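**Tokenised fold:**
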Amino acid sequence: MYRWLILSLTAYLIARWTYLHIQPESPPDWGQAAQTARESIFPEIVVSLLLHNVERLTSLARSCGFDIQISRCKI
């Protein structure tokens, strides 16, 4: 129970601080604030989720006549 409370409070504070950094005067849209925090703090997770979705939908794209190829290089 305590872990859940700590994680919830941490997520709230990160989303709130991110929202205040971007738009301090309007009422918060919590979904947008959480998305902005995730994109600014963990960009590699956002890219990983995007690549996962592209790989998952590759067969659908091929059935529509598109060929998607993903190349990765380590820098």
Remarks:
- Residues 39 and 46 are 6 Å apart (CA to CA).
- Helices lie at 2-22, 30-41, 43-56, 58-63.
- The longest helix spans residues 2-22.
- The mean pLDDT is 85.
